[in-house]
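To close the chapter, one final illustration. This time we ask the reader to focus less on the individual chains and more on the assembly as a whole: which components sit near each other, and how the overall shape emerges from the parts.
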Amino acid sequence: MVSTNAGGIASKQASSMAPNPGKATILALGHAFPQQLVMQDYVVDGFMRNTNCDDPELKEKLTRLCKTTTVKTRYVVMSEEILKSYPELAQEGQPTMKQRLDISNKAVTQMATEASLACVRSWGGALSEITHLVYVSSSEARFPGGDLHLARALGLSPDVRRVMLAFTGCSGGVAGLRVAKGLAESCPGARVLLATSETTIVGFRPPSPDRPYDLVGVALFGDGAGAAVVGADPTPVERPLFELHSALQRFLPDTDKTIDGRLTEEGIKFQLGRELPHIIEANVEAFCQKLMQEHPQAADKLTYGDMFWAVHPGGPAILTKMEGRLGLDGGKLRASRSALRDFGNASSNTIVYVLENMVEETRQRREEAAEEEDCEWGLILAFGPGITFEGILARNLQARARARD
Amino acid sequence: MGDAAVPAMVVEEEEQEHVFRSRFPPVAVPDGVTVPEFVLDGAEAYADRVALVEAAAGGRSYTYGEVARDTARFARALRSVGVRKGHVVVVALPNLAVYPVVSLGIMSAGAVFSGVNPRALAAEIKKQVEDSEAKLVVANEVAFDKVKDAGVPVIGVGDRERMPGAISWDGLLAAADRTGAGVVPVDAAQQSDLCALPYSSGTTGVSKGVMLSHRNLVSNLCSSMFAVAPETAGQVVTLGLMPFFHIYGITGICCATLRHKGTVVVMDRFDLRTFLRALVDHRVMFAPLVPPVMLAMVKSPVADEFDLSDLALKSVMTAAAPLAPDLLAAFQRKFPGVQVEEAYGLTEHSCITLTHAAGDGHGHVAKKSSVGFILPNLEVKFVDPDTGRSLPANTPGELCVRSQSVMQGYYKRKEETERTVDGKGWLHTGDVGYIDGDGDVFIVDRIKELIKYKGFQVAPAELEAVLLSHPSVEDAAVFGVPDEEAGEVPVACVVRRHGAEEGEEEIVAYVAERVASYKRVRVLHIVDAIPKSVSGKILRRQLRDEFIKRMKPSA
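The assembled structure is written out below.
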């Protein structure tokens, strides 16, 4: 058995990119989802039935709005059992923040634990080897924070060094990678576990025909958890997926009202400005150019078409506008669009699902010996409240080495 | 009579009750297990053995490992999309290998499986979806167009391209594989919960949902499998030709075979070549059939294309339709090693109620023309339909049965339920029959179908048996039509054997020679076919209505 294993690793490494010494790499990824699956095609019918509404015009409008999200399935924590245990959540104007946090706190820890365990299994190492924990969530609030609850649920060492990134919204996943990268590169031998976990329970509102736009928000967002193990200088038994070469963050002045979330007694209330896709479109290229300058050789050698694009799919409009602005061909954002289709916008988690899709695409290309080559270099991007841009210039280490000269 | 006399009378009445029980000792019914748990108990040890295989060329098959896995996956998928305890899922599938996985998955999720004939009219399927307040429908290409506008989401098994708008079975299962546990746990299914809502055949009255609990089905399986030898576990190959949407198909064939870890050879529609090929190739040992299939086995020249000398077939079983004596004789001549069994069961009693099948070594074979003996754990009595009093042996009365397999009632039909299951738990079957001194039960007829000729009762089945004994008669049905003078008169529809030349009068005369004068057939029609239900029952009510309609203009 041992020799077979070793042979497998040797052959894998032979055809993969070598990581640069001292640079942080993603060594494994993982995910977990809650119990309820929402089939988007049936959201409208269910909504119309639950609200005893048979206005055909409203139904058509909702159907159209649901389709435009391009989401086919999402996973949510909210269930019949929760509504039975907490009937006040379905009533307007009830002070329910406490109940929402009770459910959320439990759910995010449960999902983060499952995602972390799946990730560590895929990594092949032991939980005792984890030196740092970076925990990202915008769905919980408590003392001690979710980072401690997760460390305890996983049985991590009491000496594990914890960081929690709270209320970073959709850019939180990439922010977490940036922080994990910093820790991994500054502490030799560190193995950093990054976990993201989100639920829309805090913002759940009962469906109401008076607020059709609510449904678009509900129809777009999903719940779940993601995880990654990050470390530099992989051992021979580790299989690095991406090298995190350089990470940048930027906020756009005077856009702090565009993504607006307020905690109220009735839960969190979000407002997304309609101008959001336009603001991203107008500012994304300069940010990408700055990231590309971080390339060790002459950055001008890299073109958009030469790179892979792991973009947080905040919504279909953001992806379409990016494609248009940067002139990306339709396949470039495939991993992002698939994640949006299968999981919705799962906030900070989504970038983990996008990266998992890319690993799978690379694996399939390799298996099918496809003509199409993987791009070695690429960008990992996310946009969050602020408006904040998070970006990482990365290398796909599973890409086949191109024949040079 | 003073007040004190009342209890004394009750006691006296109870003393007169003629209740019959099985000659075999009672069998234990396990507590606390659901149907899927009971049926798949011990499946791990048979993980690589074939549980279900489609007879058609290139058909799908499932091992026990796959059945257990996909049953759990589908249950999880149903819960993930919000299906909960008590929710009904209508299944509009033909006989496919996946069928038992679908129904066990539904039950495992705590939901209620309601099978419907995929070849029924769209309006009939829609009626069942609406009456049962189903949350979901499972269908394949056969019924998709009929169910797509029924108002509930459809899970499509099979070719996605041909079922636009359906939730893909594979896609749903894959999506649900990713789901985790709930924050507030889902209510698990209890043995007392409903698990099936078959609609009773509709040969009499309106089609009604029959509410069956896990306990009902588990106890029925325990009773009907009482004589199954443990040492044959994993060896029995059963033919799955009877429709699975019918209670007998899903419990009597699928659940019983899976419980015993045998193999079900799944056939959708009957085709003699595929059928014989399946008997030969899959070494089928037990085949529940309808009489026309046995007729084809005996008479069709197609049968000569196969070497049937080395069949593994041990027994065939017919239920719900009487077997013509000459067909039985011809069948036994051609297949001397095959035991022909009859059974009697009804949906309201979770399936089999009386049977011939005691297996080897139990020392009792019921008489040919009987429907069998009483199964363990059951109580049976025969009541006078007019007085309601129970009758002694050898006296025909309405067959009543009491056991843990008696349904919980008709769905949303309290009145009909009360008319069918009395306060003491007796299920009134509507069938007239009697028990003989050996404990063998004979069914005379349906109460409602008994013909009342000048105050005499005439049993259609008796006249049909006489007609079927005529060498030129291939099939026959008898029913009563209103008559000014007699009240009702017996009318027969007859299918003549190919090449037979006897006229209507000759056949009428043939019957007259063999029955009492009040039983004579008064009108006889030669027809092309006799309409039957999927389980093989003659649709006498339909024949009667058609006959009356045809007669009216001339009257």
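Confidence is low (pLDDT under 50) at residues 1-14 of chain A. Chain A has two domains: 22-230, 240-394. With these observations in hand, you are ready for the problems at the end of the chapter.
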